[in-house]
């Protein structure tokens, strides 16, 4: 009998902090998509999609950070509080 080795799957890293996740979950899915697909990239000089790497709360704002899907430039998106 051979020894069975369990190869651990690398879990995708959750970019959201607890607070950010709570805030993000309150945003409707269509709006989430809109946010992620309308991030201004200084490399492209236009709005592109973000590859999300981190999301955290900064006071009342949700800060999304990541890379431009097109050129890989670092991009940041601020989601203002509701109301
Ligand atoms: Zn870009």
Approximate shape: extended
Note the beta-strand portion.
25-35%
Kindly provide the radius of gyration, computed on alpha-carbon positions and rounded to a whole number of angstroms. Answer: 17 Å
What is the distance, rounded to the nearest whole angstrom, between the alpha carbons of the first and last residues?
A: 64 Å
Given the helix and strand composition, which structural class is it? alpha+beta
Query: SSE string, helix = H, strand = E?
Result: HHEEEEE
Bound molecules: zinc ion
Strand elements, count: 5
**Low-confidence stretches at least 5 residues in length (pLDDT < 50)?**
none
Number of helices: 2
Main beta sheet: strand number and arrangement?
3 strands, antiparallel
Strand order of the largest sheet: 3-4-5
Helix content: 10-25%
Q: What is the mean pLDDT?
A: 91
Characterization of the model:
By secondary structure, this protein is of the alpha+beta class. It has helices spanning 18-25, 29-36, and strands spanning 39-41, 46-48, 50-58, 61-68, 74-79. The chain contains two helices and five strands, in the order ααβββββ. A hairpin with a 2-residue loop joins strand 3 (50-58) and strand 4 (61-68). The structure holds zinc ion. Zinc ion is lined by residues 41, 43-44, 48, 68, 70-71, 73. Residues 41, 43-44, 48, 68, 70-71, 73 line the site of zinc ion.
What labels describe this entry?
single chain, three-stranded antiparallel beta sheet, 2 helices, two-stranded antiparallel ribbon, alpha+beta, 5 strands, 83 residues, extended
